[in-house]
Design goal:
- By secondary structure, the protein is mainly alpha-helical.
- It is built from 15 helices and three strands.
- It has two domains: 276 residues, 3-Layer(bab) Sandwich (minor pseudopilin epsh fold), CATH 3.55.40.20; 31 residues.
- It has a three-stranded antiparallel sheet, with helices on both faces.
- Helix 2 crosses helix 3, helix 3 runs antiparallel to helix 5 and helix 4 crosses helix 5.
- The longest helix is centred in the N-terminal third of the chain and has 23 residues.
- The chain is globular and about 55 Å long.
- The N and C termini lie far apart (48 Å).
Length: 354
């Protein structure tokens, strides 16, 4: 089956909320795209709309601190998010997908090659919103609970910074670099998704390498016998042999629209990301100042938002916090008595081993 084609805009003009959505102005949405499923089959579909950021009017007028000018915000947020929204509306018109959230659509279509275009727009809608939600015009301090988890995973806040920025700097192609929590061991790690890839474990669509710097695999010889030819011509199953053991049945389950809930049931839960698509920084920084963009991004992270994404995953739990702090105190006290390294030495040793 060929991929769905873009429908003309006139097919959308009769939608009941087409004009209403344009009059919503700066109404704030809790999630990247809010969609209400019709209660009756005769009711018109609802459209994806661009959410409003906190302080969006201020951003569009003055930019975002030292990170973005007003012109860059206009391009990287308003114009690009509007473009993605329009494309996704066109591609999902008249399909069951029109009743789902962008993140749901990205997960549902991530392994279906016939829906590649739908996946690209849906995933980018979520990724770009996730990125802008984490920005602040003024520095926001890291709360102690979050800092403790960062140091448990990386050894020191500076190690996280250097690792994340170095990874982003090394991305030659379009990509997002993510700080995620590994739900298996409750440790943070860095993850890169190229182009429109998603970090959510149920879909987890990403390239493991940069194909620009990797030698191509040798060509596969053509099939000769009848069975091999039949297998080569049969439709491929994108759910087989996937690295994260993705199960097609999981896409058929009811999906929530809350990223933290989806992350909790997947391999990774995203906490923070930096956008290294060229349109996200080229206007303000030019071709040779990507490193300056990344430094300014780090200084513009709203760590309160990062904590709000980590806390629902169970890290607000007082028992977990007390157990972690008690283990560190015991280790520090033990060092002072027995001559073993103190806590600061332990953290330095752990960071050097990474």
């Amino acid at each position: 089956m060929p991929p769905p084609r873009l429908r003309p805009s006139r097919l959308l003009s009769g939608c009941s909320n087409f004009l209403a959505s344009s009059r919503m102005g700066t109404q704030r949405f809790a999630h990247p795209l809010i969609i209400t499923k019709p209660s009756a089959p005769s009711q018109s579909r609802c459209l994806f709309t661009v959410p409003s950021l906190n302080r969006q009017d201020l951003y569009l007028e003055n930019g975002i601190g030292s990170l973005y000018s007003a012109n860059q915000v206009q391009i990287a947020w308003k114009e690009y998010q509007t473009y993605l929204t329009d494309r996704l509306n066109l591609l999902t018109a008249g399909t069951e997908l029109q009743y789902h959230h962008a993140l749901q659509i990205a997960i549902m279509t991530s392994r279906n090659s016939d829906q590649a275009a739908v996946f690209n727009y849906a995933s980018m809608l979520h990724n770009n919103h996730f990125f802008f939600q984490s920005l602040s015009p003024a520095p926001v301090p890291v709360i102690p609970h979050l800092l403790a988890q960062i140091e448990e995973s990386f050894g020191h806040m500076d190690i996280l910074k250097e690792t994340m920025l170095a990874t982003a700097m090394a991305c030659f192609s379009n990509a997002f670099v993510w700080l995620v929590i590994d739900n298996a061991n409750k440790k943070m790690r860095i993850l890169t998704t190229y182009n429109s890839g998603t970090p959510y474990g149920l879909a987890h669509r990403r390239q493991s390498v940069d194909t620009n710097t990797t030698s191509p695999l040798p060509p596969t010889p053509p099939p000769t016998d009848a069975i091999s030819i039949s297998q080569a011509l049969s439709p491929t199953n994108d759910y087989q042999n996937s690295a994260d053991q993705y199960n097609k049945a999981q896409t058929e389950q009811a999906l929530t629209d809350v990223p933290s809930e989806i992350g909790r049931s997947s391999i990774f839960s995203p906490l923070l990301c930096v956008n290294v698509w060229e349109h996200a920084w080229l206007v303000d920084y030019g071709f040779d100042k990507k490193e300056e963009y990344l430094e300014n991004w780090w200084n513009s992270v709203d760590w309160g938002v990062v904590w709000s994404r980590l806390e629902p995953l169970g890290f607000h739990n007082e028992k977990y916090r007390r157990a972690y702090m008690a283990s560190e105190v015991r280790e520090n006290e033990g060092g002072s008595v027995s001559g073993e390294p103190k806590l600061a030495d332990h953290m330095n040793r752990r960071s050097m081993s990474r």
